[in-house]
Amino acid sequence: QAVPRADRSRAQLRSQLGQKTFNVPGLLTFGSYSNPASTYFGMVPRNIQSRFPSAFGAEGITRIPFAGCMSPERINNIILRQSNVVTARNVKNGCPDKLISSISLENEGSAELVHAPLGDISFRMATLTRSGTIIYAGNSNDEYMLVSVDENKLAVKLVLDGTPTVLKSRSDVNSGSERFIRIVLTEDQRVSLYVDDVQEGGVTLSGGMFQLADTQPIYLGLLPEELGIRGDGYTGCISDLVVQDKIFSYTLDAVRKTNVILDRCRTIQPVVTDPTSVPDATSSPMELPGELKSCSMLQTNLAPDSFLLASHGGTMNYLKIDDISSNRLYVRYMLDFVVSTVSTRGVLLFVRSDDNKEVILKFDQDKVTLTVAFATTLEIVWEGTINDGRPHQIGIRRAAYTVQLIVDGEALSEDMPKMGRTEHSFRLTQSGDLDSCSNGICIGGASASLNQDERLGYNLDFVGCFSGISLNGQVYDDRRITKIGDVPQCAEGAIMSTAHFFNGESSIVPDVTVSDQESSIFLQFRSSKQTGSVLTLLDPSDNAVLDVSLDNEKVLIRTSRGTEEMVASEGADMFYFCNGQFHTLGLTVGRNSVNVNVDEGDVTVNLEDAGPYTIRLGDQFLGCMQDPIVNGEMITLANPRSNSGVLLESCPKKSF
Predict the structure, then answer these.
(1) For residues 624 and 526, is the Cβ–Cβ distance under 8 A?
(2) Cβ partners under 8 Å of residue 597, min gap 6
(3) Does 116 have pLDDT greater than 80?
(4) Which helix (H) or strand (E) holds 587?
(5) 103 phi/psi in degrees, rounded to 5
(6) Helix spans in 556-608 (H)
(7) What angle do CA 53, 56, 57 make, to 5 degrees?
(8) How far is the CA of 364 from the CAs of 17, 325, 382, 610, in angstroms?
(9) What is the pLDDT of residue 535?
(10) Computed over its alpha carbons, how large is the radius of gyration of the chain?
């Protein structure tokens, strides 16, 4: 936020922010003007809070400790390092690329988390499991708390001095939909159970709540045998776990994980073999869909009324509302849609009448402009940014002489001059020409005869996701709207990102040459399969010199000499690539060898073919890749040497 967006291009912002920035839940710094050396990061000591109550507020804003990542900071132009930190408590060196708060437990999965003082507990869950352990915290068989699904209900079992107390929800929690669970412990020894913020049980403890020993972790899922407490395994999702104000991140706080997939929680749909039957709470336990048990395909999370628009080889793919008559655009109409994009500019909508009147809606970095060119030209400008990748609701209204533009609920209106009915009429042609924008409304693109008209402002690099399209209340989904060209569906939630989408058959060759004299290549990728070629080095004749491929749980390196090497995973027997996270691939190229590094595991292979080399990204690869970095410089894929079906800046973000 320190760099105004209007003053910096997207590429400049990327280079300034770097490739590893961390999205943290909060940050508190404190400095005293009288003593500049006293600067605190994270939890501020309580004696400092008490000295400056107006700064910290009556509630004490540091009651919740900070949990997250901070990069090295400068104080008085001195870089903050471990060597010049006076005191540090519960601070570790190194941070993961992503702080993950959701996991999927599969096949009797389990996780052991770091210690947290036992108190109020809240989390979100989605499961079809009829019975299974979710959370355990305890000191012994005579003193513990067990949260589980028990015969479709959410159960909380508290054992104090060997005496059990059990709370159960009134409603079932295993429908597959997300449920928000809270267990509240108050000072009067009252324990209350809430499901989706509705209290469904409560009990008063006679002996008070026990304190969890500092050496005791918190367990999720199937319990270790050494605890001596029996329980079924839990299959499903657990996210946003908070215990006594400690927010758990599984990348930071998980000591041990078995059959756990990070960042994979979402609503789970029951599997119904008979479409005429509806599962109920008394039916037999259901299995999770196979899609959750294996690699999650990007395409399986698509919304039926969403459309991904992008250009290929100079040809725009676009949508068209063409089942309308002129009178639906004449005096009164309402047109609405949702758009998500990270492109710098583009035309969202265009329609031209048979006598060359026009309605055009376009955007750039800092505004959305609606132009209505009839007998006179009317222009409405909404100032703001819509190319942040998030969904934005756009609406156009006309009622007689009044035209209205609505962006994210903010409405702007202008009146056309009151002239004769002919000047303000809008007649569409009755031709069946698919390429025409005079017999229907073109959305997100147009034919070559129009998109090459510089006056209109089309952008062949535009990529956007459109959804929720409606005209006068009529919804235009996949069954009703006309698609011109290759128009796939967008990911659910219609959120775009700056990564590039590879559909399993596409590849791209960036416009860059790699020397065989100590060159470096860095790439981040996210896969939806355990197989596929990520990167290939090509010689001047476009022959493959070295190929880096995913081979189930391994990384396979092939050379033109016919040799094959495997990259071993650091600290594990196998890789798991399709876990929703970005993985890193690094190559250090020398005269006769290449060192390949994947997620900290590495191997060096010999090469016979001399450079210079070109890079091919993707081949039977399904997933997303960021722009590669070659010799420390980011290489944009916007102008490649060749592109075989890669959708630029259109990697769908899944909504878990």
Answers:
(1) yes
(2) 567, 584, 585, 586, 587, 588
(3) no
(4) strand 583-589
(5) -140, 155
(6) none
(7) 75
(8) 22, 31, 11, 45
(9) 96
(10) 29
Q: How far apart (Å, rounded) are the C-alpha atoms in residues 639 and 615?
A: 14
- C-alpha span between 568 and 316 (Å, rounded): 43
Instruction: Provide the token pair at 410.
Output: 């903010």
Q: What is the CA angle 304-310-314, rounded to 5?
A: 150
Distance separating the N- and C-terminal Cα atoms of the chain: 27
Q: Which two tokens stand for residue 198?
A: 């509705």
* CA dihedral sign, ordered 16, 21, 25, 27: negative
d(CA 581, CA 150): 32
Here the tokens at position 284 are: 């037999």
pLDDT band at 536 (very low <50, low <70, confident <90, very high): very high
- With CA atoms as reference, report the closest residue to 485 among 345, 318, 263, 338: 318
Q: How sure is the predictor about 95, in pLDDT bands with cuts at 50, 70 and 90?
A: low
Cα dihedral 406, 411, 412, 416 sign: positive
- Evaluate the omega torsion of the peptide bond into residue 279 and state whether it is cis, within 30 degrees of 0: no
CA atoms of 475 and 84, how far apart (whole Å): 62
What is the three-state SS of 233-266?
CCCEEEEEEEECCEECCHHHHEEEEEEEEECCCC
Distance of alpha carbon 656 from its chain centroid, rounded? Answer: 8
Cα–Cα distance, 621 to 505 (Å, whole number) = 7
Q: Are 613 and 560 in contact (CB under 8 A)?
A: no
Rounded CA-CA distance 446/321 in Å is: 12
Amino acid type, 520: S
- Cα(587)–Cα(523) distance, rounded to whole angstroms? 9
Residue type, 63: R
The residue-averaged pLDDT of 247-254 equals 73
Residue type, 288: L
Rounded CA separation 567/557 (Å): 8
Nearest to 289 by CA among 274, 276, 270: 270
CA 477-481-487 angle, to 5 degrees, is: 90
Q: Which residue has the tokens 């693109």?
A: 445
260 touches 111 (CB < 8 A):
yes
pTM: 0.42
Mean pLDDT score, 75-103: 62
pLDDT at 280 over 50: no
CA distance 62 to 272: 48
Using CA atoms in the order 625, 630, 635, 637, what is the torsion angle rounded to 10 degrees? -40
Which residues is 567 bridged to in the sheet?
A: 555
b/e map 463-484, b = 16+ CB within 10 Å: bbbbbbbbbeeeebeeeebbeb
| Segment 297-316, tens digit of pLDDT | 333 334 557 788 877 666 78
